[in-house]
Automatic annotation (TrEMBL):
Residues 5-124 form the DUF5675 domain. This is DUF5675 domain-containing protein. The lineage of its organism: Bacteria, Pseudomonadati, Bacteroidota, Sphingobacteriia, Sphingobacteriales. It comes from the Bacteria. It comes from Mucilaginibacter psychrotolerans. InterPro entries: DUF5675.
Amino acid sequence: MELKLIRSVFNADSTFGKLYINGAFYAYTCEDKVRDLSGGCGNKIKNETAIDFGKYEVALTFSNHFQKYLPLLLNVKCFEGIRIHGGNTAADSEGCILVGAESDMKSKIWNCASKVANLVALLKSIEKKEKIFIEIVKD
């Protein structure tokens, strides 16, 4: 299964895009601001920086913070505990990828719970059969 996040809107404190599953649009995304991490972690601002572009393996694990199973991105340079979950603005992100059914593509996303629940159910149905990856690119 291939998840692809295409980032297309880069604001002063947030980043918006679209998440695709096997090539089909799935949800709108909201993240913290993209900062250049190519030279290391020096430009990272804790809880205010999006993860770097690239391809990451995804595992479905239990989140103690959210008290439920959520997708976890593995081996993310400069970050720990990066998940895909619900939230409305970059302030809810702390580096994670937020997903929602609707977005104004400039300040927020909303109607997140069903998108997160459906994504978790989908990943759960295939996690033991194949590896799951997410690729993050710029539009």
